Amino acid sequence: DVFTAGCAEVIKTAILFDPALFSDLRRAGPEFDREAVIARCVEHKRDIVAEDEFDTGRRGLLNLGHTLGHAVEACSGFRLSHGQSVAIGTATVCRAAGKAGICGEDLPGTVTALLERFGLPTETDIPMDRLMEVMLSDKKRSGGTVNVVVPEAIGKCSLRPMDAAALREFMASGVRA
C-alpha cells in the first residue's frame, strides 16, 4: 500500500540524518506518530535542499537506495512501487557496505529487520546483468561513474563514485544468494 511504500523513504531519511528517529522507528514500528515523523523528514529534506539547491553535492545523499532501487522498479515493469524498490536498494547497499567493512557489522541486519517490520521487501531475484543495464543508464551517472550513497553508520552516509566494474561487484555483494 501507499503508506508502507512511503515508510521506505521515512526509514531512508532516518538512516541518512537521524539516529534518534531510526531508534524511534525501531521502537514504535508502523504505529509511529505520523505527523511528528513526517514533519522531521520534511525538515531534513528542506535543510539538505537549501544547503545544495542545485544538486551538486550533499543533496545526492537523498538517493540512498535509489541507484539499485530505480533499476529494480524499472526491471519489475513497475509492478514494485518506488518505495518497495527503494527498500530493496537500501537493504542491498547496506549489506554490501557491511561486506566491504564500510559500516559496522550490525547495521545491515538492523536496517533489513526494520524494513521487513514495515512490510517492505529487502531482496530481488532480478538478474544483476539486467539491473546493471538500468543502473548504468541512470540520470545520476557522471561520465564513467555512478555516485552511490553508502551507509557508514546510522546518521552518516557518504557518496562514493564507482565505475561499472566496481558498481557491479559492490551491488552483487549485497544481493542475497
What are the defining features of this structure?
58% helix; 177 residues; mainly alpha
Textual characterization of the structure:
- Helix 1 (2-17) packs antiparallel against helix 2 (19-28).
- The chain is built from eight helices and three strands, in the order αααααααβββα.
- The longest helix has 18 residues, at 34-51.
- A three-stranded antiparallel β-sheet has the order 1-2-3.
- The chain starts with a helix and ends with a helix.
- With 177 residues, the chain is mostly helical.
- 58% of the residues lie in helices and 11% in strands.
- Strand 1 (141-142) and strand 2 (145-153) form a beta hairpin.
- The model has no long low-confidence stretch (mean pLDDT 94).
Secondary structure: elements and pairs:
Blueprint (H helix, E strand, L loop, with lengths): L1 H16 L1 H10 L5 H18 L14 H10 L6 H18 L7 H11 L10 H9 L4 E2 L2 E9 L2 E8 H11 L3
Antiparallel strand pairs: 1-2, 2-3
Helix pairs in contact: 1-2, 1-3, 1-5, 4-5, 4-7, 5-6, 5-8
Q: By helix and strand content, what is the structural category?
A: mainly alpha
Give the helices and strands as they follow along the chain: HHHHHHHEEEH
What is the spatial order of strands in the main beta sheet? 1-2-3
**What's the helical proportion of residues?**
55-70%
Low-confidence blocks of residues: none
